[in-house]
Amino acid sequence: MESRIRNNYFVFVKALGIIALAFEGVFSFLDDPSAGGLTLLISAVFLLFAVMPETEPVKVPRKIWIIGEGAASIAALFLFPSVGICFTAITYLDLVSSLPTPSYLGVMYILPLAWKFGLDLKYYFVVMVLLVLIYYQHNKVIGWYAKATEDNLEEESKLKSDIEHSKEAHRNELYKSRLQHENELLEEKGRISQALHDKLGHSINGSLYKLEAAKVLVEKDPAKSTGILQEVIDNLRGSMDEIRVIIRNERPDKSRMALKSLQALLGECEEEYGIRTSLEVNENGRTIPENIWEIILDNTFEAVTNALKYSGCDEIRISINVLGEVVRATISDNGKGADSIEEGMGIQGMKARVRKVKGYLDIESLGGFTINMVLPLEQKNKES
């Protein structure tokens, strides 16, 4: 009930005002029941035409209601001026409610009417000021507020749509990047398979034929059989050398594969958990060894997993920079952090990997969680 009154306060205020005026007119005719009854009837008609258009939408055009309201107010003006003059003011404000604000001041026309009918001008001046304020608030202030609210909702809807489009575009980029990564892996596998087929297929087939021949000659001509076996051994030894060369030449670049793995990890954080991410890698012309990349990858996966589980963050940043003879890798989030750090198996494992190459690991837990790793580049420091 309170909500209904709050949403339709203007209708209730308007109806209560008209009813109050009607009772004032009735009480002024206590000695004349017929005049009091007529006052009540005209007031009821005026109430109907003045309030109905403000409630639920009706099929009757608004101008019909205004005409009925005006006729009732004029009748009231001539029969009981003290009430009718207020009814005409309400009719006037209903008529100009959609016009610019200065038109509201035209309602002051009732002051000359009040003077003509010998009514108290101060009383009607105060009543008119209150009516203008109520109508101004209802038709202008609330209208501006409703317009601002509508604009805000439209802007919010547009912003949500833009965010959805951005997310969709980002998902498409991640999907394309994943497809490209898979295609590169397939191409590398294809190159290795083709190289093995081209360089080793004939050699291995020839060795099989020679072994079959040696099997037949092992009893009839042992010397020739021994020569064939030696040829097969030499052929297979050469094939093993070719396999090593192929693996060395066709082996994927560890740095590029590590970056792909980090990008895939951060892409999953954004796509699945809505977390903003950033990745900065600067090798400064140096090459990070494979064993260092393995440590960075393993510790990064462990740190990101912990951040997703415990930190409550909405941003994760990864920075990898070569500084002189060391690599500095930093994984940080903007989560809740911790007053004290309990070293579970995850943190102990990270420290063990770093110590293995005589590196250094530092953890900061205030204002988020940050893991700093300093790892040496020199080959002689790779193993403790």
Query: Any idea what the shape is?
Result: rod-shaped
With strands numbered from the N-terminus, the spatial order across the biggest sheet is 1-2-3-5-4
> Biggest sheet, in brief?
5 strands, mixed
CATH topology of the largest domain: Heat Shock Protein 90
Measured distance between first and last alpha carbons = 79 Å
Number of strands: 5
- Uncertain segments are 1-5, 380-384
Structure notes:
The two termini are 79 Å apart. The chain contains eleven helices and five strands. It has three domains: 2-119, no CATH class; 175-250, Up-down Bundle (Single alpha-helices involved in coiled-coils or other helix-helix interfaces), CATH 1.20.5; 254-381, Histidine kinase-like ATPase, C-terminal domain (Heat Shock Protein 90, 2-Layer Sandwich). 18% of the residues are buried. By secondary structure, the protein is of the alpha+beta class. A five-stranded mixed β-sheet has the order 1-2-3-5-4, covered by helices on one side. The model is unreliable at 1-5 and 380-384 (pLDDT under 50).
